[in-house]
Amino acid sequence: MSPQAKRSSVIHTSIPDAGSAIDRNIPDFPIAQLSDEEKYFRTYKAPPYLEEIEDEVRKFIDYHATHTGKKVALITSGGTTVPLENNTVRFIDNFSAGTRGATSAEYFLENGYAVIFLYREFSLLPYSRHYSHTTNCFLDYMTESNNKIEINPDFADEMLMILRKYKKAKDSNSLLVIPFTTVNQYLYTLRSIAILLQKVGSKALFFLAAAVSDFFLPQSRMPQHKIQSQSTGKLIIDLEQVPKFLRRLVDNWAPSGMIVSFKLETDSSILIDKAKTALDRYQHQLVIGNLLQTRKKEVVIVASNDQSHWIKLTDEEVKENMEIESLIVPEVAEHHEKWISNHIKKEQESH
Ligand code: PMT
């Protein structure tokens, strides 16, 4: 007997219920409020190149889903700018050089991930970071011999190692680099990539190391042209709060991916509490806390089960130029493995 045949009558959901359709005793629902994030995307335009980026990202994810089966890490890196004029001469920026993101990207690649590197244009990039923003001029890495340019032998061994890793990442199509500059470009691109990453489910890892502006100037109040000197001798800028997108990411854009956010503070006494509050508020999996002053040699990893522990480089390790990301990334990858196994278990149980 088919399931329908058991029912005494057939249900048609498309037919209005005449009995209660115009029941005036039922109070009106309050008007549906748009969330701050939805309002944001309705108000601000997507960058004109977004579809192009989506095509590239889709191909990259499809390639790894079909051919390599690699886990995919989306790493965000660098600061975002907040333009103050439409024809932008001035903008607000922050300190982030993208060291955390670019360095972590290299270690994720070494740990077998495919990496989408969403970075602030002109901030540090994986591999080239070793030479691009140093206080040494890049020409110092070269010498001339018999009318030809050669790599200065003092740097050749190290450069060869980095070149090999870079080529490996490129030849295996494991690194996709996507730029942003403004906070608006960042938010739109993050949303698009997160939605596309749903294809790899729990194999997606979000490593949100970018320092995203908390305030911005809405387009409606942005002057078209360069702000002129003020007769008051002062310039007062009235900024709005950028909505926190982490909750949207966790609930809607990336429901199966593992999400790691960062918490930056300058006061050590509040760091762990702030990290725990973020986990509580956004319900994601890990927060990596760091202090502006010591971020290159110590971080605290706070997990959703309330466990936290510090990773610290010893003075010796700092002297030997060890990078703290070489310790952070394998630990995050271990958490991610558990996340994936739990998802597989849950799927098996539900079948
Ligand atoms: O680039 P470096 O010089 O190496 O520096 C690295 C770093 C210090 C920037 C990095 O390690 C770091 O801490 N990055 C996050 C800094 C930060 O912006 O923290 P926050 O407290 O403002 O935001 C916390 C989280 O909320 C972030 O993961 C962000 O993705 C998220 N967020 C932020 C703003 C916003 N509107 N919506 C968000 O969801």
Automatic annotation (TrEMBL):
<dbReference type="Pfam" id="PF04127">
    <property type="entry name" value="DFP"/>
</dbReference>
<dbReference type="InterPro" id="IPR007085">
    <property type="entry name" value="DNA/pantothenate-metab_flavo_C"/>
</dbReference>
<dbReference type="GO" id="GO:0004632">
    <property type="term" value="F:phosphopantothenate--cysteine ligase activity"/>
</dbReference>
<comment type="similarity">
    <text>Belongs to the PPC synthetase family.</text>
</comment>
<protein>
    <submittedName>
        <fullName>Piso0_001396 protein</fullName>
    </submittedName>
</protein>
<feature type="domain" description="DNA/pantothenate metabolism flavoprotein C-terminal">
    <location>
        <begin position="197"/>
        <end position="310"/>
    </location>
</feature>
<dbReference type="InterPro" id="IPR035929">
    <property type="entry name" value="CoaB-like_sf"/>
</dbReference>
<dbReference type="GO" id="GO:0015937">
    <property type="term" value="P:coenzyme A biosynthetic process"/>
</dbReference>
